[in-house]
Amino acid sequence: MSIKTILVSQPSPSNENNPYTRLKERLNLKIDFRPFIHVEGLTPKQVRHQKIDFSNYNSIILTSRNSVDHFFRLTKLMRYNVPDSTKYFCQSEAVAYYLQKYVVYRKRKIYVGQNKLKDLDLVFKKFNEDKFLLPSSDLLKPIIPEYLDSIKINWKRAQLYKTVISDLSDLRDVYYDLLVFFSPSGIESLFKNFPDFKQNNTKIACYGNTTIEAAKKAKLKIDIKAPTKDYPSMTMAIEKYICKK
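RE: above sequence
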């Protein structure tokens, strides 16, 4: 069976010149994007119930763009002016770059990891007297709190948003040759929306070990896995699979 139609369970890329567009043009594919999950922000009342007082923290740990958006959304709603002296510990360059949406870069203390919080190990230890706040969703990879506990800093998690399954009912009678997943929540959304889903000839692509494990638990046959040493991106893995057929 040849692959001609692909559904990617993520929002459409904002940049038209992206790897999916190039893949589509090279192999003459139909590629659609549809988020299987979305994020909803918590209210100030829900944050107060967690006994979170932003003024108690002088260092903020940011692991995603969503954590940036919802931290500043809630500080604004709760009428807390974030001091210029606040330090920001960003897991990656992408998160740090996105932070510029809210702060003037040159006037802030911003520390940037390569793609893991552990990259900031020495910086965390340098400021081990600080009080750290970790804005997060309801879903948090265990490796993050485990690491923060291991370096013995004073930190607290603040759940500021939650992951919600999207309504996909309009896709019930729409079929694709390949479904592409990037999180266990995406797999969960598939079966919550379509409890009677049968894979049949549909191919499945999964990015990341946790997504692969979730697909296996759901008894899905995984045809494409990424990242790998030779194919670090999903688009490269998809192209390899199609061209081998």
